[in-house]
Every structure is written in structure tokens, then in C-alpha cells.
Specification:
Blueprint lengths: L4 H7 L9 E4 L5 H10 L7 E4 L21 E7 L9 H17 L4 E3 L3 E4 L2 E13 L2 E11 L18 H5 L5 H18 L5 H9 L6 E6 L2 E10 L5 E4 L5 E4 L3 E4 L2
Helix pairs in contact: 1-5, 3-5, 3-6
Bound molecules: biotin.
Length: 257
């Protein structure tokens, strides 16, 4: 069944996020549509929403499995000052985790930096793409994908590492409610992020990664060590076996033992 946009709008409590919606039954990737809209001058908060993606993508050029009518695939166009762009990588997964908790009672964890996981399997991911012009940021495209009513066992490639709310709860979840709660949380957390460290602390307290021995891969570069902490920008602080500490801005974490 297709999304009931009116039911989403009725629940919206935001000032600007989701106040302009571009809704598509099928597209390549909501990130592509968002980029075109942003280039055309779409206002901050514009939401691109698709029922299906034929070329949904994840971080590191991976494919995001995006069957029709089951899950949430969206991109929010943001136009932050350059110094606020980093907080999007904290705010977006935290808003997903809190919205899932609010709507379902599950307590998702976050795998640094922005995978949302339940029972060790990935429920949602966030792709953030930015366009820079000189010293300033033209826009940021914040794209969460959440596995909602997807019978994940039908997707044999990812069934071992991914999950959906359907798998966890053995019932359907209202995509409209989850989407509206996410948009409300996302704007609220984004607006309150500069007012001290509580957003960072909320995100940190959900991180599954801290205190674990990890391998962090970024392009061809691999670093191993103890995931000690995160800094105020959300970077991972890794204590290496020789005692040196490195600050890691981006990468893919694999847990070791
Ligand atoms: C990841 O964990 O690798 C990020 C996955 C992000 C998937 C979403 S679905 C909506 C948006 N459009 C895309 O093509 N990707 C993101």
C-alpha cells in the first residue's frame, strides 16, 4: 500500500523540515532527485520521498535494497552553515533510533557513525552527501533508509546482516507515523544541537562501538584498536596497540572479538 501523505502531514510539528514534499512512486535514488531539487533552489527542509528506488545507494558505493511500498526511503535537503554540517551525521541516526523507539518500543543502538541496529543487525542507514562551493556549503542531502515492513528473508543477500521492524515485531508498523515522528525528532535535535552537548551525549549513549576492539576501514586504509570514545565533532578516538591515539573522521567499523 502507498503512503498516505495526509496522515504524515497531520502529525508534523516541524517549522521547516518536511513542509515541502516531493513524492515519487518510483525513482532511481531520492538522493538524485534531492540534488536536482537543491540545484533548482528548493528550500531547506524539502523532503524527497519514494516508494521504491531502482538504484538506491548506501555508503561506500554500496547498493541499498529498496523494494516498493514496504520501507522508508527519503532525503531531506538541508542548507546548514559549514560548521553545522558535521552535526547532521549525529542528529540523523539519533532521530531514526529515537523515532523507532517511540513508535515501536524497540531500543535501537547505533554503530559508529550512523548505522541503526537492532539485535546486532542493521535496521537503517543514513547517507549524507554535501555540495561545497568555495568555503561554504551549498547544501547537504540527508538520506535515511529504514527497513519497515520488509520481509527481509526474501532478500537473501542481506538477510544475515540486516533486519526490519517486521522481522523484529512480527507485525506491520505505520510508515506514516514513523516518518512523521522521525521528521519531528530530526528538526528538534538539529535545532537544539548547538545548545550544549546533550545531543552528542544521547548519540554517544546509543553507540555500540565504544569499549570494543574494532577495525576501521576507509578506502584502502585499515586501522585497528580500542574504540575509546568520540570527540565533540563525533569523530572516533581509537587507541592503537602501541598506545597512540588516532582521531578517525570517517570509515566502516567492524567489531573484533
Ligand atoms: C548506508 O548505511 O550505507 C546508508 C544507506 C542509505 C539509504 C538511503 S534510502 C534513501 C536515500 N536514497 C538513497 O539512495 N540512499 C539513501
Amino acid at each position: 500500500m502507498w503512503l498516505n501523505l495526509r496522515a504524515v502531514e497531520e502529525r508534523l510539528e516541524t517549522r521547516f523540515v518536511g513542509r515541502h514534499i516531493v513524492y515519487l512512486t518510483s525513482t532511481t535514488s531520492t538522493q538524485d532527485v534531492a540534488r536536482a531539487e537543491a540545484e533548482e533552489g528548493a528550500p531547506a527542509g524539502t523532503l524527497i520521498l519514494a516508494e521504491e528506488q531502482t538504484a538506491g545507494r548506501g555508503r561506500f558505493g554500496r547498493t541499498w535494497v529498496s523494494p516498493a511500498g514496504k520501507n522508508l526511503y527519503l532525503t531531506v535537503i538541508m542548507r546548514p552553515e559549514v560548521h553545522r554540517a558535521r552535526c547532521l551525521g549525529i542528529v540523523a541516526p539519533l532521530a531514526v533510533a529515537e523515532a523507532v523507539e517511540d513508535v515501536t518500543g524497540l531500543s535501537p543502538r547505533i554503530k559508529w557513525p550512523n548505522d541503526v541496529i537492532v539485535e546486532g543487525r542493521k535496521l537503517a542507514g543514513v547517507l549524507i552527501e554535501t555540495e561545497v562551493q568555495g568555503q561554504s556549503l551549498k547544501y547537504a542531502l540527508v538520506g535515511p533508509g529504514i527497513n519497515v515492513n520488509f520481509e527481509i528473508d526474501e532478500a537473501s543477500d542481506i538477510a544475515g546482516i540486516a533486519t526490519s521492524l517486521k522481522r523484529e515485531l512480527v507485525r506491520d508498523t505505520s510508515r506514516e507515523e514513523l516518518l512523521a515522528v522521525f521528521l519531528n525528532r530530526f528538526e528538534m535535535l538539529y535545532e537544539s544541537a548547538p545548545e550544549g552537548g546533550h545531543v552528542l551525549q544521547e548519540w554517544r549513549s546509543r553507540l555500540d562501538t565504544l569499549g570494543r576492539h574494532v577495525k576501521v576501514t576507509f578506502r584502502d586504509h585499515v586501522q585497528e584498536g580500542l574504540a575509546e570514545d568520540v570527540d565533540a565533532d563525533g569523530n572516533l578516538i581509537l587507541a592503537q596497540p602501541d598506545g597512540r591515539r588516532v582521531v578517525i573522521e570517517a570509515g566502516e567499523v567492524t567489531l573484533r572479538g
